[in-house]
Design goal:
This protein has helices spanning about 1-10, 15-45, 65-70, 75-90. The protein is elongated. It is mostly helical and about 90 residues long. The N and C termini lie far apart (about 80 Å). The longest helix is centred in the N-terminal third of the chain and has 29 residues, at about 15-45. The protein has 4 helices and no strands.
Amino acid sequence: MMVGNSMIFSILFPSSYSIEVSKLRQQLDEAHLAWATEWKRRQADFKLENIRFAHDPGWNKRFFSLQAARDGGHWFWQATHTIVVFGGLSI
């Protein structure tokens, strides 16, 4: 049975094709290595810096803060929550 399979493969894939595939694979590997080397060389130009922001203790109390809108941390958002709750109960 193995002889039959190898004969079928030799008919479908003659030896000249396997040489061409290996040459193509070698060219692809060389091109990828060149690209990866160049990409790594260019990445050395960029350095990440640790950017720190000053802590704002009242960040969740700011008027346009999403957290203030969710928690009702500002009088406007508290009034909005109250109106929405009473509006929802009246439905």
